[in-house]
DNA sequence: CATGAATGAGTCTTCATTCAT
DNA sequence: CATGAATGAAGACTCATTCAT
């Protein structure tokens, strides 16, 4: 009995995943408005009603996808620790976070596309949260800049502007990697990105 | 008679502009799918049928807007001339182009929003052309990098990746400026942007 | 031009009427829930979108129908004037009101059916107002009873109960008339109804 | 073995009742169309499939409820016996039947609501039978009137019309009692009702 | 017998587009 | 040229019913 229930639950989770995956792909291809429940259920190979057995509405799936992605990303991105001597060097921490983030996106192209393009999309309330998430990251970068200036690591600059530029740069690179097709050696890319950010392109 | 026709033509052009302006605002606010013909004609103060007198379809206005913007931008962005001794120094040329571009966007926020967010939106064929336009710019930057490397101005780097990063950075900054509200001193911003790109943020 | 506009308005009113009539019939046949927009537009010979050009929603038409009916009925039913010497005798007033009401219903069977059966139907807010309307009438009758008792015309009784019984009786008679088919001589019916109410059926 | 089967049958009957009770409440609250299988099974605390183990369809439960009610009512209402000297006086018989009917309804408000409002509801075939049932009662009253006229007890009147009025009156009163809330002294109400019917409200 | 996941026909509503005036 | 009434395809969502476990 217990086994039955458990396998039932597992099956349910499986279905949910299946729908989420289909929805993610459709949203990535067509955007929130352009995506139709029809397209999602066709891709997921389920009946119309089944969709609504697992999600309350179109915007609910959308929100669910973005929320999960933001959770995953938050787990990969933190403040860089500069005071704790037991922590790795700042540049190592930075590299680690960028690498981890890029790898996450490369592992789920559809999701990356979604994250990059769904800043618009009113209607779905998660969209605002996505914007808030980006603001959060910009703020993280800005504070890193301020700290860096204080400890003499970073040159005098406008932290907010630099943060906006950096986040844009990251997005640009991710877009580039996605457009490239399959697995590029993310490692070298990270090195290049960080170099650009820290030293620019001049000789 | 000729005068009448001419003034008629001028009036027609005026109407077209009026619709385009309204549409631009609506598209910027709601995105391609979220924008309704209704919203556009209300904003333009015209009747439903009149809209279709000037544009074939919803996507036609959208395309028209993007096309015009791309034309304007192409007029502001060129290859940087390094051989011609009569041309200004490369950094001056660069600065001029970036400044002109930013000023164009600041003068038309709605359009800037559109350009930044309409990478998604299938349906409207201009969206692909927009993607092509961005590719064009990335290619311009990439070639500038290659040239720069050849003449020993730029350090060894992956031009395509750098181009993606730079374009992303520009988009990030424009987003930032738009979000800021009214007229910031674009001039300083340009200086900062170029500094980041060329020298990074390290001291 | 004025003529055109006016005829346009008249045409619009005509359309509205056409839809209302169709809707009334469908609601009467199938009840609020059972009635589908499909059935209404088929009966009205219009396209789906046209319906929504004239009414916001299904419940809006329903409300509109009931509201209009209640307005019409209110115009036919008033407090019976017993003090004013210039007014007709109470029994004449009563007869007049009952007659007028019955004639109204006989002139629009579908509407009568609707009024008689839509006490249930939640969802449409007019349904509550209909219930309130019936309560209003019951209250009118109850007060008439009280007054009648005071002036010694009516025997001692429970006004509220009598009111409920009387309203029920009226509804029962209307149902009966509708079921009968075409034009019965409403006049005799009214006489009988009033006689039952005032003197009962005993010899 | 026999015992098991019997207890099984009894349990089955129990389940059936449980579902009927739940359904009755839901139908009374929401009407036939407004009632959902979902609401019924939630109220009955059973699984979706179980419902269909006991009833063929939604309309089948509905029919079953109405049928049972009609059976119960038929057991309470008969022709009034005027010839048999051993029978109670006609007015006593009348009183007994009205009282018994009212008590039945007061003991099951949900059912009363259902009976009063389900005259509409096509779809469920029992609705027609309900209409037939009402016709049956009207016919009973009409024949009582005719008989009454023949034996000089009732004044000259139109039996069919009087029957419709009387049935309407009964329904009006039941509605009134239900709306009142808990147990009013049904006895006095019956007296009033019969008085109205027989002698009217004039002094 | 009981369960509840799955189904898909059907519902209301929106909106880009057409066309008679 | 301008208008706006009319259209109907398409979209999101509900719910009675079925069936494998």
Kindly describe this structure.
The structure is a homotetramer of 203-residue chains. Chain A is an all-alpha fold and 203 residues long. Chain A has 2 domains: 1-55, Homeodomain-like (Arc Repressor Mutant, subunit A, Orthogonal Bundle); 59-199, Tetracycline Repressor, domain 2 (Orthogonal Bundle). Helix content of chain A is 76%, strand content 0%. Chain A contains 9 helices and no strands. In chain A, α1 (2-34) packs across α2 and α5 packs across α9 (186-199). Chain A is elongated and about 60 Å long. The termini of chain A are far apart. The model of chain A is unreliable at 1-5 (pLDDT under 50). Chains in contact: A-B, C-D. The interface between A and B is large, with 48 and 46 residues.
């Amino acid at each position: 009995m217990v086994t039955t229930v458990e396998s039932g639950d597992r099956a349910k989770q499986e279905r949910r995943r299946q729908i989420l995956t289909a929805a993610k792909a459709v949203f990535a291809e067509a955007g929130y408005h352009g995506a139709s429940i029809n397209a999602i259920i066709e891709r997921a190979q389920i009946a119309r009603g089944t969709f609504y057995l697992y999600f309350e509405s179109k915007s609910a799936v959308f929100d669910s996808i973005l929320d999960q992605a933001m959770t995953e990303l938050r787990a990969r991105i933190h403040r860089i620790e500069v005071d704790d001597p037991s922590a790795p060097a700042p540049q190592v921490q930075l590299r680690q976070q960028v690498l981890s983030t890029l790898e996450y996106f490369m592992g789920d192209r559809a999701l990356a596309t979604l994250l990059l393009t769904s800043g618009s999309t009113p209607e779905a309330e998660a969209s605002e949260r996505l914007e808030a998430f980006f603001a959060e990251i910009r703020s993280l970068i800005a504070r890193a800049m301020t700290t860096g200036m204080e400890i003499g690591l970073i040159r005098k600059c406008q932290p907010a502007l630099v943060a906006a530029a950096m986040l844009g740069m990251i997005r640009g690179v991710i877009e580039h990697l996605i457009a490239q097709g399959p697995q590029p050696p993310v490692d070298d890319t990270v090195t290049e990105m960080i170099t650009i950010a820290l030293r620019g392109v001049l000789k």
